[in-house]
Each structure stands twice: as C-alpha cells, then as structure tokens.
Amino acid sequence: MSQSAGRHAIVIGGGASGVLLAHQLLHQPASNFRVTLIETRAEIGRGLAYHTGNPDHLLNVRAANMSALPDQPDHFWRWVASQDIAICPDPYCFVPRRVYGTYIASLIEPIIASNSHRLTIVQDTCVEVRENAASVEVTLAGGQRLAGEIAVLATGHDTAEPKPGAYANPWAPPVGMDKDGAVLILGTGLTMVDYVLSLLRDGHRGEIVAMSRRGLLATAHRRVPPMRIEEADVPFGHGSGELFRWFRRMVEAHMADGGDWRSVVDAIRPYTQRIWRELSMPSRRRFLEHARAWWDVHRHRMAPEVEARIARALAEQKLRVMAAKVVAVTPGEGGVSVRYRPRGGSDIHTMQVGAVVDCTGVVKDPRATANPVVRSLLQEGRARIDPLGIGIDVSANCAIIDGSGSPSQRLFAVGPLTRAAFWEIIAIPDIRNQCAELAARLARA
Question: Which residues, other chains included, contact 89 with Cβ-Cβ below 8 Å and sequence gap of 6+?
Fold first, then answer.
C-alpha cells in the first residue's frame, strides 16, 4: 500500500489526549485512517500531566477508573497487574503518574514496533494550521509542512508564558532552590500539592506557604460505596441556583442515611457535561465566579497517601496555607518581597521569601497561552475564544468554530482545550469517551 493511501489525520499533541485519539482512529472498524502524531517532547503519551519522574506524584483517580478504552473499563487495571511492578495491590489504588504515562504509550507501541505506514510520529512543535476546501496544512517549527484531510488539536493543558524574575517553574523539579529559604506557592490546589511533595522529597527545610483567595485545600478520596442517580432525577436546563439546591439536598439526604458526600459527587459525574451544556450563559458565569473553587476541591480529590503527606507537613509546620491575595511581587538581592492582603481584611502585609511558584493551575484564559498553534489560530480568525473566556469555542462534535461563528469541517479539538463546551473534560474518564466518539464520527464521515 502506498504512503498516500487512506485518509490522513494529523493529531497535534502526543500526550494522553493525542495518543487516545490516535489509538481510536487506528482501531475504528474498517478504518482507513493513517495518523501523523506531532509531539514536542521526546516521549509519547506523557504530556504535561504524566512526564513527572517523582514517584510521590500519584494519579488523582483510582486505577479501577483509569482505563484508556471506554469499552474495556478494566483495561488499565489488567495492564498494571501484568507488569512486574509492586505498585498497586488492588483496583482501588492510586498509581504514580509516570507509570500511567507508560501505560498510555503502550497503547500504540505495537503499531510503532510493526513499522506500520499507518502511524507516523514527528517530534516537533506545530506553529500553524491552515484549512481549505479539500485539505489542511500544518506547519512545524522546523519548517516542515504536512498535508492531511483533518487536523485535531490535542495539546492538553496549556501553560502560560514563563513569568520573569523570581518565579520558579511549577512543572519542573525544584533544582537549585535554597533548601533553607521560604517558598511562596500561589494556589492551593492539586498543582500546589505536587510541588510541595517535590520540595519535601528534595529535602527542603524552609517554610512553605501556599496562598489562594479562599485558602481551600483539595479533599481526599475514600473507599465509599457507589451511588446511582437516575438521569430523569437531574434538573437539566434549570438555573445554577436550583441545581445547587438540588445537589445540596441530595448530599444532605445521603449523609443523613450514613453515606458519604463523595458518593453523590461521583454519581453526578456522568451528567455533568449535559448539565453544563444546558446551563444558560449567566448561570455558567455565576458558577465560575461563586462555586467553581468549592466544586473543584470536592470533585478533583487527592489520593489518601498524598493527603497523609500533606497533613503531616501541616502538622509539622513545614507547610502553611493562607487565604489571601497577592498585591505585588518584588525581587531583590536578598530574595523576594511579597505584599498581600489577607481574605476579609484591608491591611497590606509583607513577607520575604526565597522564591515564588505560580501553581494557580493551567491557563484559564486562552489569550495567555504559550501554545503557538493556538495563538496562531486565534490571531488569524480560524478559532475564537468562547464567551466566558475559558477555552476555544467548539461545537458539540468538537469542530473548532472560527471567528465568524462557523464550525470547521476539518479542524477539531479534544481534551482540556474544549472545556468551554464540555467543562468536565480534563480527566481521562471524560477524554477517553470524547476521543472514541470523535473517532467514530470521523470514520463515518
């Protein structure tokens, strides 16, 4: 078969989202797709989430729920059990994230090993995508141009342009940091938790201060019995206020019967995308402004082992969590001067630290992205930002919507880039379904 045979799909991003989509495209019944996977990193399947080498960085979802394949819910657990690694005694354990990256890569290793013409991996950075009536053209940083029938953005979590001066990279190990100096971490979510674990593993002795507007810490998983909520019982299409009241009643009733609130949060997960799609724009905005932080700490939980380490760091006063807002960060010869306002107060306070680490999470405003292909699409009007400013605008079938409001026939996106349309689309259980559905639609087209 010639290299040009079959439909050519160019998948931009070789992390988890890109590999999941490539795997689904190549395994569609009677599929005639060939896939080019473009990834900046040398390793496929890791991306930002799974590139860490720190064994203390664990998945935030138990192994039983982390299958990459929707039609094989125990696929990951069976893979773990087949490996000669004593990391997971039962399906309810939490595996190191780097191990999970190895699992994702294993999905396409047989195709790579067979030297199949159907999969090509290119290590480079995509800087531009153009579309015409018959094809798409992708331009890489190295100057190479690739043509295909469709292109899919699967670039995962975007990061912002690095901040200058005193800011340390939250995604890199704390190499060269003064172990006796105080460290200020902006944000108190799961990214902060990872960085604290990195500091402690590196032998950091100075105080670690984690600061966010509300000072909320992520909750932890527990082994709780599952609960089922019937779809007919969910008040789809209602405003955020009624949804919140309904949800609180569900939690209160379940806990009154001796249950755990986690069971209710997990039971609503199959419906969260539909709830989000049917919310009005004002209700979505109210959720983001007033409830998002509370939802995040209950929905995105940490492993019990991680919770124990963080609790110990707090008890030993190695870690302090503050509810405050940073006013100014000023580097100096003796470190960094940080001015901040505690929550509920008006006075400005000052602290001296050796370094500041911005762990407020991934890019929430697409205009701040460091991703060159996303920036190019926005600048040239081939994509637009959603009305809430939290992602690029895509249709219900993942087609990228251009500046005039028209969905593309050849440009698509999957994963966290599409959170404006789907909201719950940052975890593997959601992304695997999205990739399977998009691949099936493209195969039928």
Answer: none
